[in-house]
Design brief:
The chain is α/β, with parallel strands linked by helices and 275 residues long. It is 38% helix and 24% strand. The strands form 4 sheets. The protein has a 7-stranded parallel sheet with strand order 6-5-4-9-12-14-15, sandwiched between helices.
């Protein structure tokens, strides 16, 4: 009899499989559900369970045995999609952010998948108080010793696996933290943007409640567009980017007095710019 995996291992495997299913459908545009059972070696019941979760999060659509990708704007907002993108760059940026944390601090961590990469690094900085709206982060940090975890409630949104909206911002307004770590979907003309107006308001409330604000973004954010503005890059005390960020962006930001830190991605030795 095979050894039973711990429940958390099964959960991790399920998350990974759903991410791969979403990526496969996005790449093909549409697929028959039977194709997914063959490709991933899963039962039809498991395939439908996985697909129903992805449909509920706005990633996929399912009809008469066919599953198809949802509109691009919804896909790019989803945490399932975001987790799979620029993973090496995001980890490098998150690792660079750790130097701005001191034991004993209270910190805000937003729901971004870039900030999520800080989770496995936090135990070396305890004792800490972590305040977050991300259900994923809450689950990641719930067992860390000497870490006080404050979960922000409010209206839960499947697409980001986080709490946002008026109730969340009201709670944030009654708190004060040493440092905020957040990421955004896009940077245009040295302004930061996101697709969701409610998400912008939640992040703005965190900005107002933190003494120090640190923005974590990989180089692809300079190539994207989004609708709702949070504010200028100059509102942040530190902007951390990866070493694939074009020099023109780095030079322009520094010329405007923005404190830029460039994180070295594994395998890109020698490309790091001093921060």
């Amino acid at each position: 009899m095979a050894e039973e995996l711990p429940s958390d291992s099964r959960h991790a495997r399920q998350i990974t499989r759903r991410q791969l299913i979403a990526e496969a459908v996005m790449a093909e545009g549409s697929m028959r559900i039977e194709e997914l059972t063959d490709r991933f070696g899963i039962s039809l019941m498991t395939a439908h369970r996985d697909l129903d979760e992805l449909v509920s999060r706005g990633l996929l659509r399912k009809s008469r045995g066919i599953v198809s990708a949802a509109p691009t704007s919804l896909i790019e907002s989803s945490d399932v999609y975001r987790t799979s993108r620029q993973s090496a760059e995001k980890f490098a940026v998150a690792e660079a952010a750790m130097r701005f944390i001191e034991p004993g601090q209270a910190i805000f961590l937003d729901d971004s998948t870039t900030v999520l990469n800080m989770a496995p690094l936090l135990p070396v900085k305890v004792p800490l108080t972590v305040i977050t709206n991300s259900l994923t982060l809450m689950n990641e940090l719930r067992s860390v010793r000497d870490l006080t975890l404050l979960g922000l409630g409010g209206q839960f949104q499947n697409w980001c696996n986080a709490f946002i909206g008026g109730a969340t911002t009201n709670t944030i307004s009654r708190l004060r933290a040493d440092t905020l770590f957040l990421s955004m979907a896009a940077i245009t003309d040295d302004m930061v943007f996101h697709q969701s107006a409610e998400m912008v308001e939640t992040k703005r409330a965190m900005c107002d409640a933190a003494a120090t604000r640190i923005l974590l973004v990989d180089h692809t954010k300079f190539e994207r567009r989004a609708l709702h503005s949070l504010g200028p890059l100059s509102d942040f005390d530190v902007v951390i980017v990866d070493d694939a960020t074009p020099a023109t962006h780095l030079e322009r930001m520094r010329a405007r007095g923005i404190n830029v830190v460039v994180a070295e991605t594994a395998g890109n030795g020698g490309r790091r710019a001093a921060g």
